[in-house]
Amino acid sequence: MRKIPTLFVRDPEDMRHVTRYVTHGCEWVLHGEGVATRKYDGTCVLFHDEQWWARREVKPGKEPPPNFVAIETDPNTGKTVGWEPIEQSPFVKFWREAVEGERWEPTTYELCGPKINGNPEGFERHELIQHRDAKRYEIVADADVIRATVVALAKDGVEGIVWHHPDGRMAKLKGRDLQ
Question: Can you list the domains of the chain with their CATH numbers?
Fold first, then answer.
């Protein structure tokens, strides 16, 4: 899974927030293309070729963990995003709780629960949410409507929205980007 671009350009004066300008390559969202889904606040994991992987970011100048599979390097931050075997991830204990007794499809999931990111999703136990099964939203393709919708959803505890284009492109916007 590649790093998903933020729908709006980050504010160079305060990189925690976004401007009103659309990120190059994300214009399709404002053209009404793609599907809007809930962005869950957890950590991304992948089941592929009968093996589980955890998403991992490696900062510039840092040594990647053993068996790390790099996917891409962000030219702005120098961080490399990729996958490491779940067994060496700090989330392995919580992942074990989530996968016990289930059969899993090869795809990506969000690992959420009591010990993940402070549990903003409010789960009682650790669970895996298949990304393609995330709740869908009908959002008018207008920048002001999108911003207002994401702010309102954030007040209800939703981290943000991820848009999925039929050709595989994605874009995201988090409530905290707009605060």
Answer: 1-40+134-179 (3.30.1490), 41-133 (no CATH)
State both tokens at 8.
């709006």
The H or E element containing residue 154 is helix 143-155
Backbone angles phi, psi at 32, to 5 degrees: 80, 15
Task: Tokens for 144, please give them.
Answer: 């002001």
**Residue 33: exposed, middle, or buried by beta-carbon count in 10 A (0-12, 13-18, 19+)?**
middle
Structure tokens at 125: 């136990």
Q: CA-to-CA distance for 142 and 29, rounded, in angstroms? A: 9
Query: Residues 132-141: pLDDT tens digits?
Result: 889 999 999 9
Average predicted confidence (pLDDT) for the chain: 93
